[in-house]
Amino acid sequence: MKQGVRRQTRTFPAHRGFLFAAFLGLVSCSVAAWFVHAADPLRRSLAPVVSVREFELKQGIKADDFEAFARREISEAETRGNLGLRMHVLRGERGERKGKYVLVWEFDSIAARDQCFPKEGAGSSAGFRETWSRIRVMLGKFGSYVREKGDYTDYVLISD
User: Fold this and answer.
1) What gap in Å lies between CA 41 and CA 56, rounded to an integer?
2) pTM of the model
């Protein structure tokens, strides 16, 4: 080393260990808060629910006739108000179920689904009975067009 030239070295403050520990603590708290937030039962009860029922048209039923029925009758039977329920009929466009249909019940939340149907496989709630009677009449007509598989699955939104 030449005389008169000092080698510069970077020095850290003596409290660098404290800063590092504070940083790790902050990260740990953030991760823990995220897990608590994700597991929050109230947040989970507010997650949207989609109930899917697969079916096929009965022999001799024309797709155009069924689709006209679905557009007309489902909108009249469902409620778009305070119950948070919407119903949709979808037709497969590609893939394994091309040309086949699903009936989708879309609930704003688990709480909304449970307000309509409190228990799995059981009947409707008292507050939903008037709407359910309209839907049941529509489903009776619906059954004259389709063969339903009979089973269903309720899906809860996990990610947007």
Assistant:
1) 37
2) 0.65
Q: Residues 73-84: pLDDT tens digits?
A: 887 776 544 578
- Provide the phi-psi class of 113: left if phi over 0, else alpha when psi is between -120 and 50, else beta: alpha
The full set of domain ranges for the chain reads 13-45, 47-156
The answer to whether residues 113 and 107 touch, using CB atoms and an 8 Å cutoff, is yes
Strand partners, 85: 107
Strand locations in 1-157, DSSP E?
49-57, 85-91, 101-107, 146-148, 153-156
- Once rounded to an integer, what is the mean pLDDT over residues 142-151? 88
Span 47-156: which CATH code? 3.30.70.100
